[in-house]
Specification:
The protein has about 100 residues and is mostly helical. It has helices spanning about 1-10, 15-30, 30-45, 50-60, and strands at about 70, 80. The protein is built from four helices and two strands. The relative contact order is 0.11.
Length: about 100
Amino acid sequence: LHLNWGQSLLRQGRPEEAMGKLQVEALFGSAEARDAYHQAWVAVHGSEAGFEDHLWAMRRKHSKPMPQFSLANYDGKFVDTANLEDHVIVVTSWSPT
């Protein structure tokens, strides 16, 4: 919804409002939303200078730290998230039914 809303605002010549609608989707969602956000950025700022730095700062602002916990891996050894700082972590689980 926000992608379509933001794209509509861009077509209406309202790039600042479009950035507001597209921001979270552009940071964590689709490439299409990121492209629309980039287009709005250039319209507002006159160039793409600072765009990547802006995205990084906004990702950090909207991100939340993962709580510390330990889980057993496939070998039965416990892995503590405190030892994984600055790593990308994917946690998956399943339960047989």
